[in-house]
Amino acid sequence: MALSEADRDALMRAPRPRRDLPLIAQQRRLPLADQSRDIDRAIRPIYAVWEITLACDLACRHCGSRSARARPNELTTAECLDLVDQLAALGVMEVILIGGEAYLRDDFCDIIRRIKERGMIALMTTGGRSLTPEIAASAKEAGLASASVSIDGGEEVHDRLRGVKGSYRAALQAMRNLRDAGVRVSSNTQINRLSMADLPEVLETIIEHGAHSWQIQITVAMGRAADEPDVLLQPYDMLELFPILGRLADRCVEADVLLWPGNNVGYFGPYETKLRGTMPLGHMSPCGAGRTGLGIESDGSIKGCPSLSSEGWIGGTIREHSLADIWERSARLRWTRDRDGSELWGFCKSCYYAETCKAGCTWTSESLLGKPGNNPLCHHRALEHDRIGKRERLVLVEQAPGAPFDHGRFELSVEDR
């Protein structure tokens, strides 16, 4: 086990770090390039992940955005509906509504209805704490196609990570409410040192509750997750995690559940084909921020990926520019289109898979080490170190300041195993 029973029990009982609810600063005006280029007009996002509010009815201890209350300047209903029209015009096919908790907006169903009217697929990711049969029925009537309910462990672990007693049972009830209303259900799970041992139980639970797919993602040291570094996986934990994921992949095939590894689950170890064989390339591809997807914050700020930090990655806001202009002319959304490998450093720069992988998930690299281009949470990398009797360890050296999408700073050491 990555953790002894005594260490795991101590983490389960640890009090949460004290944090005031953060104030959300207004994003500053950002310049755009004078013209778009052929590559910017040729590339179009397949999906958009849209945080329609930062208000939340949970208190998740791993939340990257530190969701709690709505931003003071969230988009109005009219602005949201206009943004839906712009997403459709840009060629987006799927819109995933998130929060906070998306259904806490009064116009939640109006936004879903407009998404469907514009020919896109409306999806949602939810903690499900207050997702009543009435909300599920209204969302179905408006056009919600599928909802992913977060299940992060067995009951004890889930409630600890989600910060609210009873949130596990509420999430399972939400799955039942959605299915009863005719909405297809899936699930998503954070992987960390508390949840890893519960992954087989989670899979059996979501199979029982009719999930058609399961997205898994390694917990990233952003927001509240950065406040509890002992809960986060270490690079050497990949050696234990991936054999577990390999067995779970077999079970998913058996149960007809699509396993969808998040972009930070990887990379290129002996389980790569088993985990990503159903994906377009059949293996890991570089960060898709600003290429296949985009992220939207609830004040209309646009990023290449919803998980990236606000500072440094917001390319503009729809109150200042059109969505198409931001997509085509923002340097921050062009980043993955223009990268040539020179941004790689550390182990990733010399890795055999560098040209194909390009350090994988930008979000993970930056949240841990302060800049993209070197991602230590990699199975291949852990195996290479293990082969020579070494392992890498992440040590927190600078606390996160306590703002949405913030991160601390870790140092990486190589030690004998």
Question: Any chance you could write out the topology, listing elements then pairs?
Answer:
Layout: H1 5-13, H2 38-42, E1 47-51, H3 77-90, E2 94-98, H4 108-117, E3 121-126, H5 133-142, E4 144-150, H6 155-162, H7 167-181, E5 184-191, H8 199-208, E6 213-218, H9 238-255, E7 258-261, H10 272-276, E8 293-296, E9 301-303, E10 316-317, H11 323-329, H12 335-338, H13 347-350, H14 354-357, H15 362-369, H16 379-387, E11 390-398, E12 409-416
Parallel strand pairs: 1-2, 1-8, 2-3, 3-4, 4-5, 5-6, 6-7
Antiparallel strand pairs: 8-9, 9-10, 11-12
Helix pairs in contact: 3-4, 4-5, 5-7, 8-9
Throw out a few tags for this protein.
417 residues, single chain, ten-stranded mixed sheet, alpha/beta, two-stranded antiparallel sheet, 16 helices
* Low-pLDDT stretches: none
Number of helices: 16
What level of helicity do the residues show? 25-40%
Globally, the shape reads globular
Instruction: Please give the largest β-sheet.
Output: 10 strands, mixed
Given the helix and strand composition, which structural class is it? Answer: alpha/beta
What's the average pLDDT? 94
Distance between the termini: 15 Å
- Number of extended strands: 12
Beta-strand residue fraction: 15-25%
What is the succession of H and E elements?
HHEHEHEHEHHEHEHEHEEEHHHHHHEE
Spatial strand order of the main sheet: 7-6-5-4-3-2-1-8-9-10
Output the radius of gyration: 20 Å
